[in-house]
Each structure stands twice: as structure tokens, then as C-alpha cells.
Amino acid sequence: MHILIIGAAGMLGRKLTQRLARDGTLGSSPVATLTLVDVVAPEVPEGFTGTADCIAADLSTPGTAARLVSGRPDVIFHFAAIVSGEAEADFEKGYRINLDGTRDLFEAVRLAHDTDGYFPRVVFASSIAVVGAPLPFPIPDDFHTTPLTSYGTQKAICELLLSDYTRRGFFDGIGIRLPTICIRPGKPNKAASGFFSNILREPLAGQEAVLPVPDTIRHWHTSPRSAVGFMIHAATMDLSRVGPRRNLSMPGLSATVADQIEALRRVAGDKAVALIRREPDPAIIRMCEGWAPGFEARRARELGFTAENSFDDIIRVHIEDELGGTP
Amino acid sequence: MHILIIGAAGMLGRKLTQRLARDGTLGSSPVATLTLVDVVAPEVPEGFTGTADCIAADLSTPGTAARLVSGRPDVIFHFAAIVSGEAEADFEKGYRINLDGTRDLFEAVRLAHDTDGYFPRVVFASSIAVVGAPLPFPIPDDFHTTPLTSYGTQKAICELLLSDYTRRGFFDGIGIRLPTICIRPGKPNKAASGFFSNILREPLAGQEAVLPVPDTIRHWHTSPRSAVGFMIHAATMDLSRVGPRRNLSMPGLSATVADQIEALRRVAGDKAVALIRREPDPAIIRMCEGWAPGFEARRARELGFTAENSFDDIIRVHIEDELGGTP
């Protein structure tokens, strides 16, 4: 089996690549070839014994999508995107990468389909940013997409394209609306939502972290491990069960910041919790209040997607996967 | 005031142009200039005393959108589209006209905004085809857009673009999700939904009409006069009341075919009804069953959009506007 991962150097791309290298299979098929693409060349995952082709490319430059599709990968994971803040700061770049790049990919697959019947599975990473406030809680599967960012708009448009290209029979597509991924490994970054991870990851490593919002803020989370699990399931499940509505809100954990802190206390004690410094930031509080508090995700659960049921579990996943099993 | 109408030779474009020519004003502003655009040059409306510029152009050809915007119209009505059947038959043409053409227009306005602060009102004709079966009845305002045609997909994407360009401050946009327009004037056409109009218009003119579906089929209708009313209201209302969710399902009349026939009987008698010939068409029946039975349209009603409350009224509008007042 030949697998193409676009956005393979990002957090999710790296984790998925590592998982595929470790498993050596996707579903019941051996992974013979990995084509890994990002704006910087991704690394060959440790222990992978098949053929790995690591490519530095910008999907939105003419000809790139056709080149990536020319090897006729059986499964395409498309994760590449300009993040929310950058898509808001640079309108043209956001549309070029997040919309035109994705459409170029879909078009390249369509033209290959017309040429020789090529029919890959396409797994697209969408986002809860496709919805916008005011939001009910929980958000039902049939809630409308009225994004309040250009990033969310671009993801919502790509979801529509994915459904239409699938309905027309050009490829077998599925869109995965990811919750906020928590605990993100690595250093604190400048994403407005970064604190959800920072207030757990940093104290677990003995470092201080800043909490810019009240404890009452509720949001929708899943672990990196579950996010990879969604992608594997999306790539291997029977899509005929999904029908024409190809974009699914993934299951996750709806939790307040207070829930996060109490889980940290249970797993790592008062000393860890004491490392959280409260520094309210009105701008982040305002943004936060518009974010999704949680989804029903009924269809995804019925289709076999699973996620954590407590923040204790999310913290344990981080300790196992990032800290070698010891907090 | 300078008004640009793209798609001015279509049914809705012609009716709106005639109304503007007759009123001489839009809201409280005199209409000084009409720029009328379509793939064939639209006609100058009878009785219009201002400047009319009639242009044959395809919005999706490079440079066209910038040229149309160069006169800095105060209000832009964008109705131009490849219809559903053609967008389904010709995938590339549908996306080129319905998506790329609209995006070109929005981009031309954005670039003009960046140049000199240009900030027009943009009224976009969307469609109930943005939703797809299975559908609740009535369909709430916050129901998701999961179209089952490429046409519906293109309209849903343009709705998302319109909201984002508005949110970013490039123009003041509003998307109008039109019900099926009934009674369409003119000859019977090949649109699958044509029978809704045919079974009324033809008998009113003493002609036979074919009914290809059962009497129980329920659908969502409004008259051409109301559709023009929506556009005028959209162009003149205070949009600050609308907030960021800029695409509105219009009010309409939810009625079965039986309701239509009984209204015809009340207005034009048994003789007219006897001209309806039942010829079930399984393909049309299948399509029909996926169409919208009716919308709640609560937000649009609260914002002052109004439509007919009975099919008797819809028939009377046709008699007044198309048949000189006499059935």
C-alpha cells in the first residue's frame, strides 16, 4: 500500500507517520511506500522498512498536486494548512494554501480519475472552527457551519468540496473535524488556544505556565493519540456506511479549565497545580467565549470513532507517549 | 445611485430591473445608473430615464469582474449562475461560473476596497439547494448545508465566502436563499422542478400540463414578485441587525401539489384543473423526494422579509403580473 501524507511535518502528520512506521500496516495492508510532504521536507520515521519519499513542496504551487498524485497513492491524508492566526493575518495566503491548495489536490485526483479510473481514499483534517458563536451545548451533528475566522471558512469550503467530489465518484473522501488537540507536545506556542495544553504540559515538566482565562471556560479536547486513531479509522473503515454527509464532528471530551486543573492535581499533585499562574488576558477571554464548548458527535461515535472520557486519561496519554511513562 | 445587476437577463434579473425602472428609486435613493450584465446583453427596461449600460459578459473570464466593479456601483446584485442541471452535467463549467465567477467578483471588490475604501452592498442569490436530504420539516435556520448537487455545493461555498468577506470588512454582503419560484412566467422548461409552475401557468392559459409526481409531494415556494421584494429589502435594510450570519433562508409557502391544485380550482375552476394530465415519472419523483419541504425562516421574517401565505395569493400574483389581471 502507498500512503501520501500532506502536512507530514506537522504535529499530527509526524504522529501519524510514526504510528504507521511502528504498525507497518494500515488496516490489514502492509505499508510499502510512504510519500511524506510538507513545506520543509519531513523526516523518514524511525524503524520504517518500506520506501519513504520525503518531499519539500507547497501544495498551492502549480503542478505540485499533479506530481503528488502521479504515484497513485492508495490513501491520501491531507493535513496541510496555514493555521488560524496566520490565515487571519494574511488573507491571500490563507485562501491560497487552505482553499486553493486543497482544491488543486482534489482536481489532480479528479483528472487522474478521468484518465485511468484512479480512486483513492482521501482523509481531510477539518476543524471545529467551521462552527461559530453563538453555539448550543452540545453542538448537534446537523448544526450549521457559520465560521468566524477565514481559517474556519476555508475548512468549511473544503468540506463541501470533499463531499461533492465524493458524491461525483472522483474519490472516496472523509472529513474529520478535529477537536482541539490536548496535550500538544513541544514548546508553548503563540496560538491563542495554547494555554489548554500549556497549563498541563509545563507543570508536568516542572515548569510554570500562564492561564489567561477563568476556570469556567469550557472547551472540546482530544489527545494526539486519539487524533491519530481517528485518521487510521477514517482511512480503513467502510465508507459506504457514511452516506453523502462526509464530514464528521469527532468525539472528544468537553471540559472546563477547572476540570483540567483537578485532573492535573489527581495525576501530579498540588505541587504541579501550584505552577499555574493566573494572568487574565481580556483578548483571549473574548476569543475563548466564542469557541465550541462540545459536540454531540453522535454519528462519529456510531461509526466507531472513539476518544478519551476524562482529562485524567488525556494526561496519562501524554505521560505515556511523551514522558516515557513517568510524570 | 449606481446599481449593478449581474444575471440581469434571467427571470429574476429582468423582474428586478423592471421594478427598479418603475420605482425610479431603491429605498429613498434615485436610481441614476443601471449596469446590466449577462451572457447575452440585457435590454434597457421600459420607462427607465437614467443611464443604462447593458453588457454581454461572462463573469468568469479574466478581467471581467474588475471591469464591472471599476464604475464603483453602490449596490451589486449577483444572480448569475449555471442552473442545477447544467452544473451537474458539466462539472468544470459549473465550478467555473458558479464558484470562480462569484469569487472573482468578491476579489475585485476586495481589491477595490484596498485601493480606495470602496464598500458596496452585495446581494447574492443563493438557493434552498444548499440543503440536502434527509431533511426535517420545517428546516430550522441553523440546519447544516449538505447539498446533494454540485450547484448546491457551489451556492453553499459562495455563502461562506460572502460571510467571510463581509466579516473582514471588504463589502456589506447578504445572501438570500430563494425558495422555488412559482409561478415562473414563460414557456415550460426542462428543469425537473418545472412542473410546479407548469401545472398552474398552462391551465390558466387554457393549455394542458403534465404532472409527473404524486399530489402528496410537499415543496417550498414563493412568487416572482416576492423574490424581487426580498432583493429590494436585502439591498435597503439595516444590515447591522443581521450580524455575522449573512445567509438567510427566505420565507415562503410550504405546500403540497394537492394544495396547488385546490388553489387553482378555487381561482380558475374545474375546467382549468381538468387540463392537468398525470404522467408519473420515477426519475422526477426520486429527485423530488429529496427536495426541501419548507423552512422555518424565523430570522428572515424577524428581519422584515415577507412572502405569500396561500397558493391562491401566488396564483393571483401571476394573474396580476403576467396576465393583465384576468385569468
Explain what the structure shows.
The structure is a homodimer of 327-residue chains. Chain A has 327 residues and is α/β, with parallel strands linked by helices. Chain A has two domains: 2-179 and 223-249, NAD(P)-binding Rossmann-like Domain (Rossmann fold), CATH 3.40.50; 192-220 and 253-322, Alpha-Beta Complex (UDP-galactose 4-epimerase, domain 1), CATH 3.90.25. Helix content of chain A is 41%, strand content 18%. Chain A has eleven helices and 14 strands. In chain A, the strands form four sheets. In chain A, strands 5-4-1-6-7-8-12 form a seven-stranded parallel sheet, sandwiched between helices. In chain A, helix 5 (150-167) links the parallel strand 7 (121-127) and strand 8 (172-178). In chain A, helix 1 (11-23) crosses helix 7 (224-236), helix 4 (91-116) packs parallel to helix 5 (150-167) and helix 6 (195-204) packs parallel to helix 8. The longest helix of chain A is centred in the N-terminal third of the chain and has 26 residues, at 91-116. The first copy, chain A, is globular and about 60 Å long. Chain A starts with a strand and ends in a 5-residue tail after the last helix. Chain A binds chain B through residues 91, 110, 132, 141-148, 150, 153, 156-157, 160-161, 163-164, 167-168, 244-245, and chain B through 91, 110, 132, 141-148, 150, 153, 156-157, 160-161, 163-164, 167-168, 244-245.
